[in-house]
Design brief:
Blueprint: E1 2-3, E2 6-16, E3 22-27, E4 36-41, E5 44-56, E6 59-66, E7 80-82, H1 89-99, E8 104-106, E9 117-119, H2 131-137, E10 142-144, E11 150-152, E12 164-170, E13 175-180, E14 193-194, E15 197-198, E16 201-206, E17 211-216, H3 227-233, E18 238-239
Parallel strand pairs: 8-11, 12-18
Antiparallel strand pairs: 1-2, 1-4, 2-3, 2-16, 3-6, 4-5, 5-6, 7-9, 10-11, 12-13, 13-17, 14-15, 16-17
Length: 248
């Protein structure tokens, strides 16, 4: 695992299905990286930005975010849009991204905002508004792709095929803990399915050079008992701690 050219010693990376991935990294280096840096985890490469960096006990410590780091910045430029048939939402989003240093890629049909005018909100001391706030207010589905571009549209994928060892689960909370046995981290990305259940968030944790995965199958706030489905999920590709299949 690396960030830029530096070997990662410890990592906590949270990748939601929608929104921005963020990570905390400790690297085996005393020199600090800045600006655009790529996280390499197995076959997964994520382009992002170092937001904060410091040297602690001779090691580089980073706060990293996917993309250019713009969606967390406050909006300092007001813009007004007008159309007799309604303003196109993707036009608003593309200009918002440009003002914040981000790039977008539309993968969904565009829609027109209600009314004939749209005034983009401006951040103030009394009411700070970030780019992320504006995106949510526009009602768009969005996520930052591995290449650093922000995708406007649904995040979907395929059934994961990576090999992993089962390490724990909580059916009432909809998550499974896994230890990967190969470098196929792309299998566990949000939007993919695992035994028929959509992965809503993955947290990658490492403090010994080997990663652990925490997969959430339901969005925050959802209330569902997924016990029976998770029992189905942890049979098949996932093996027990002792190497034998889990038959529940």
């Amino acid at each position: 695992m690396r960030i830029g050219t530096q070997t990662i010693l410890e990592l906590e990376l949270r990748i939601p299905r929608y929104g921005v991935a963020k990570g905390s990294v400790i690297a085996d280096a005393a020199e600090l990286l800045t600006g655009t840096q790529t996280l390499i985890i197995g076959n997964l490469s994520l382009v992002g930005t170092v937001e904060r960096a410091a040297v602690v006990d001779g090691r580089a410590v980073y706060d990293w975010t996917a993309g250019a780091g713009g969606w967390g910045r406050e909006i300092t430029i007001a813009r007004c849009y007008e159309s007799s048939i309604g303003v196109l939402r993707n036009t608003v989003i593309a200009e918002l991204a440009a003002d914040l240093g981000e790039t977008t890629r539309a993968e969904a049909d565009d829609t027109r905002l209600p009314g004939k005018k749209y005034l983009r909100p401006l951040s103030t001391a009394e009411r700070p508004i970030t780019g992320k706030d504006a995106l949510y207010a526009l009602g768009a589905l969005w996520w930052v792709a591995p290449d650093g571009a922000t995708v406007i549209g649904q995040r979907s994928g395929v059934e994961g095929t990576g090999d992993a060892t089962f390490a724990g689960w909580a059916p009432d909370h909809g998550f499974v803990d896994l230890i990967p046995n190969d470098d196929d981290f792309l299998s566990w990305m949000p939007g993919n399915t695992y035994r028929g259940e959509v992965i809503e968030e993955v947290v990658i944790l490492s403090n010994d050079g080997r990663a652990n995965l925490h997969l959430s199958m339901i969005s925050a706030g959802d209330a569902a008992d997924l016990g029976s489905s998770l029992r189905r999920m942890i049979t098949g590709v996932v093996r027990g701690i002792d190497g034998a299949p889990w038959l529940l």
